[in-house]
């Protein structure tokens, strides 16, 4: 079953660290089978929506998304981020 990796950036505290993370994370996640479906700032928010950077990545399964997160290449990207952003990351199964 398809799964979705959803990242919401509540606060970016260091643009340079975020850029270093992005340079490593993109290839790590696509190399693990992820497909970027959306990323950037919202065009519109409703209800309690916050105007925060959002990223949506599709994986073949929850297990594939977990494996991508836990992979050494993605862990290297996280080390580069090193507190450069406050994020909410979740993996949600498709329906």
TrEMBL record:
Pfam families per record: DUF1330
Protein name listed in UniProt: Uncharacterized conserved protein, DUF1330 family
InterPro entries cross-referenced by the UniProt entry: Dimeric_a/b-barrel, DUF1330
Species per Swiss-Prot/TrEMBL record: Nocardioides psychrotolerans
Signal peptide start and end residues: none
Domain DUF1330: 2-95
Lineage summary: Bacteria, Bacillati, Actinomycetota, Actinomycetes, Propionibacteriales
């Amino acid at each position: 079953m398809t799964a979705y990796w959803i990242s919401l950036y509540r606060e970016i505290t260091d643009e340079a660290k975020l850029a270093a993370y992005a340079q490593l994370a993109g290839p790590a996640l696509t190399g693990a089978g992820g497909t970027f479906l959306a990323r950037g700032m919202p065009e519109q928010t409703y209800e309690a929506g916050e105007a925060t950077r959002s990223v949506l990545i599709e994986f073949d399964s929850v297990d594939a998304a977990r494996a991508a997160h836990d992979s050494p290449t993605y862990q290297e990207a996280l080390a580069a981020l090193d507190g450069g952003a406050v994020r909410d990351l979740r993996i949600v199964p498709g329906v």
